[in-house]
Design a protein that fits this description.
Rhopdopsin 7-helix transmembrane proteins, Beta-Lactamase, Hypothetical protein af1432, 5-stranded antiparallel sheet, 21 helices, 7 strands, 62% helix, flat
Amino acid sequence: MVSMYYTVLFALSLLLTFGYLYVWHKRFDIHITLIYVLVVVSNVGYILLGNVQTLQEALIVTKFTYIGGSYLQLILMLAVFGLCKISLSRWIRMLLFAASTVVYLGALTIGSSPIFYKSVTFELINGYPVLHKVYGPLHTVFIVLVFLYFSASIAAIVYSYRYKKQVSNRNLYLLFLTEVVAMICFFGGRRIVPRIELIPVAYDFALAVYLVISWRLSLYQITDSAIDSLVQTGSTGFVSFDTSFRYLGSNQTARNVFPQLNEFTVDKTMDPNDTTAQTMLSWLKSFSNDGDTEDLWYEKDEHTYRVTVQHLYSGKRRHGYQLVIADDTKEQRYIKLLNTFNTDLQHEVEKKTEHIVEMHDNLIMSMAMMVESRDNSTGGHIRRTSEGVRLLIDQMKAVGYDLSDSFCRNVIKAAPMHDLGKIAVDDAVLRKPGRFTPEEFEKMKAHSAEGARIVHEILKDTDDDEFKHIAENVAHYHHERWDGSGYPDGLAGQSIPLEARIMAIADVYDALVSKRVYKEAMSFERADAIIMEGMGSQFDKALEPAYLAARPYLESYYRNLE
């Protein structure tokens, strides 16, 4: 009966291995393939273990089964890390492999040395072979290693589930289940079924899981699929050379463009007298000297080919150079046609673009002013805060902030949109001639998130992704505070987008120095004291130099409004 149990598990492992061979792809992780090999080998050992009749036979077979025991958990762990896209350094892998090898070498001393088993006896109970073992110190090391491999695998799975969005959650569930089953069978198998090993069950379960994962891998390996598709279409040519410029091979597309490649001998240096060889050598040497990957052009039979020289990789190592050849005839003809009319076309496009941008900006300002017209307490707030943002950004650049022109332009342009969400606030709250009650303030606070939604809807079909992103952030987060006590999301510190941090200072400054229905305008000195007091709590302390530099310009601007 025991022999039949092990035989069935061995047959199942063979069947699963054949399934793996069917779905196998050359770019599969080598550790997955090793799992199938080691499980089949281990299951052969368990078949033999179920048929032993003497202690000597049992010792030999036990040593055989420890091939899987010593290495399989390590290989399973490395496979898990690979599927979780977590890299281990080569030295760590070699160290773990060496540790497992030491354990296995210790297992080979069973029966002749007490280092792994202090003692071992054998008996047949109702025809079942049973070994009674007293474990030695190296067996403790073996258990510690296995526990380490289990723990590292589960940690990698949990980490990937929480932080790696590019790893399939389905695969992580399957891997976690595999580790749990393996741990139960490895550490509790003998307690569950004393006379037989449950470890082969865990092995076969792992094979079934990895077969499912392997079948799905081709769906996730986008890069590999793209490469295969690119080669199969035959529209791109490839020519490979080693670091000494010896020819390594080419595909048929490349040989159609350069027929002389048919005469090249693999692993031989190209004939310097051959015209094709001279051309390719000049490309390769130029790239080798300066590493410049700019496109090259090759004309033949009224066709224009784009040739790109790049490094040839095997894994992460460079092993030579590769020419990538693509027919660019249509594109080059189109470019020439465009160049013919380029000046007039560019002028027309610029005129149209300026008109569209102007209309777009006017629309944004009109919408913002329409929303502001509903609020009887903030007249002119939009224009004033927009100017405040501009003055702050000017001084940020002056004190050394490295801001791109597009960022500065987009923040200033987005400033009028920061309170668009007030359009969704009830008139009874928005137009109240006095301070808000706590309930009314909660309703008013909703304008930030609502403003971000409105901005998103307004700009979702525009091509300017940077402006769209900045405008949403300004509307959404301009009431967040540096210490995390703001709203709507309670963001803190650097989590608050820079554009929103800038907007917050301009917004509060205007609220302080401007007259509202519920208060008189505050003096510049008092407003400045409040702003400075808020640096590091309400506002980004790093913006303090820019604010100090902008302060006289802000005061001058507001004085001119009086």
